[in-house]
Write a structure and sequence with these properties.
One of its GO terms (molecular function) is oxidoreductase activity. The protein is mainly beta. The protein has five helices and 33 strands. The strands form seven sheets. Strands 1, 23, 24, 26, 28, 29 and 31 form a seven-stranded mixed β-sheet that branches. A six-stranded mixed β-sheet has the order 13-10-15-20-17-18, with no helix packed on it. It has a five-stranded mixed β-sheet with strand order 14-22-21-16-19, with helices on one face. The chain is globular and about 65 Å long.
Length: 503
């Protein structure tokens, strides 16, 4: 059995006892024939969760054991030194396993604050989801916790804390779940993790969040005031492009002037696994002059489409295949609306035809396709069906004290949106704020409904201001699961809700 931490958080005795609790506090409007209350909560320690995990296990699966430490130390961002929290480096060391493998990770907390790990995008067992005070106790300083679960689906994933705004430090790393059947359309792989950075450079994410909670968002006219940087804006994102000013953005832990170089050769086909680990920044990504064939969204295959540029919201992943030309080219990541970029160089040994700074202007002019309009491959597409239950999620903010809400309420882990195993669940997300929200569902992947058609399978998708996004998923992973905005400041300020399995 996975090891349990030595101490309990302030509400754990209630939350970890979900399996015995009666769902008198479960609320929410369940439309189209769904039930809106009653029943027993299926908590993280319920027999149903263990049964779902057994069903995921396959004969002959490998077991991978890893020891991981969350530490406080200096890191080199490419000639810029920052004191931050990390898993030993920024990004942390990649974990790579195969579909169906059992992963065992012991996390030792050497930080001055409690922490956790969320395994972003995986449909794993509920008690390993890494949400303090909901699925596990906080891992106290000096304590440890062992995560152990089966990885059921191949794809590009990553892991990060779900404790406060720790995601905006250096606590993240890729998790790649390989599919033995892949590889026919590429020769090698390159993982590119993108991030926005301010920690250890005169401020911390906690101080930034405290400032937002005290004084709210800066006025959008501050950019015209002497000495005040302009707040990020993007027509593509509907106006506001972020709440926080960052001095740098990173690709694989490095600023643009000191990029990682990936040795390659002309004609080689590279599978780019793109991950946006940022807290407040959307990236547009491309290889100038080289088309990319998009093959996967959030780990699941899509009908391949050739594009010059893609958009990546916080928490989202895209896999793209590129064929290397007879020159050195950058994988460019423009921070949307910020005037910043990061890069990884695909080096053939030959000189580049143009410098990266000039190429960013070309990338910025390209028309960015709607990523939610990608189409899931037939092998993974969920059929168009009438839902058994529909939940409306109205996204609003910022209110007083920088509050962000779902259905007029800040996150309350005792008040969930009820669903039942076996249902087709529809989430109708309506963005009534003036800012975009990349919405992430834990423990499931959903089918985007794009204009009544089948879109991509995803676990994170952007909802633009004034727009509505409809997604469906199969309720096949019992437990208590978060749904939240993956802007870490929005989520921590209240834009989270709970999908609550009941029986």
């Amino acid at each position: 059995m996975p090891a349990q931490p030595a101490s309990f958080g302030r509400r754990d005795l209630f939350r970890l006892g979900f399996g015995l609790a009666v769902a008198t506090g479960v609320a929410g409007c369940a439309n189209n024939g769904g039930s809106s209350g009653g029943g027993t909560l299926i908590g993280p320690n319920s027999p149903e969760v263990a049964a779902a995990e057994r069903a995921r296990q396959i004969a002959g699966a490998r077991r991978t054991s890893i020891k991981l430490a969350a530490v406080q130390a200096e890191v080199d961002l490419g000639g810029i030194t920052a004191n931050t929290w990390s898993y030993g480096d920024v990004p942390g060391k990649e974990i790579r396993i195969r579909r169906g493998d059992l992963l065992n990770v012991e996390l030792r907390n050497q930080l001055p604050k409690p922490t956790s790990i969320h395994w972003h995008g995986l449909a794993l067992r509920n008690d390993m989801d890494g949400v303090p005070d909901l699925t596990q106790s906080e891992i106290v300083p000096g304590g440890s916790f062992t995560y152990e679960f089966t990885a059921p689906d191949p794809g590009t994933y990553w892991f990060h804390p779900h404790s406060g705004v720790q995601l905006d430090r250096g606590l993240y790393a890729p998790l790649i779940v390989e599919n033995p059947e892949d590889g026919g359309n590429y020769d090698t792989e390159l993982v590119v993790l993108l991030d926005d950075w301010l920690d250890g450079l005169g401020q911390t994410p906690d101080a930034v969040f405290d400032e937002l909670r005290t004084n709210g968002m800066p006025g959008m006219d501050h950019g015209s005031m002497p000495g005040m940087p302009a707040m990020p804006k993007s027509d593509l994102l509907g106006g506001d492009a972020g709440d926080v000013i960052y001095p740098h953005v990173l690709a694989n832990g490095k600023v643009w002037k000191a990029p990682q170089t990936f040795a390659t050769k002309p004609g080689q086909r590279i599978r780019l696994r793109l991950i946006n680990a940022a807290a407040d920044t959307v990236f547009r990504v491309g290889v100038p002059g080289v088309p990319m064939t998009v093959t996967h969204a959030d780990g699941f295959p899509v009908v391949p489409v050739e594009l010059d540029v893609v958009l990546l919201g916080m928490g989202e992943r895209l896999d793209c295949v590129v064929t290397v030309p007879d020159r050195t080219v950058p994988v460019l990541a423009l921070a949307e609306g910020r005037g910043l970029f990061a890069q990884v160089l695909l080096s053939t040994g030959a000189a580049a035809s143009a410098d990266s700074e000039s190429l960013t202007a070309e990338l910025a002019k390209l028309v960015v396709p709607e990523m939610n309009a990608l189409r899931a491959a037939d092998s993974v597409a969920l059929p168009l069906r009438e839902p058994d239950v529909t939940h409306d999620l109205v996204l609003e903010g910022p209110g007083d004290k920088y509050s962000w809400t779902i259905n007029g309420k800040a996150y309350d882990p005792t008040d969930g949106l009820p669903i039942r195993s076996g249902q087709v669940v529809r989430l109708r997300m309506q963005n009534k704020s003036k800012m975009f929200h990349p919405m992430h569902v834990h423990g499931h992947t959903f089918q985007v409904r794009a204009n009544g058609k089948i879109g991509p399978r995803r676990d994170t998708a952007i909802v633009l201001p004034g727009r509505e996004l409809i997604v469906d998923f199969d309720a096949d992973n019992p437990g208590q699961w978060l749904i939240h905005c993956h802007n870490v400041y929005h989520g921590e300020a209240g834009m989270m809700a709970m999908l609550s399995y009941v029986e």
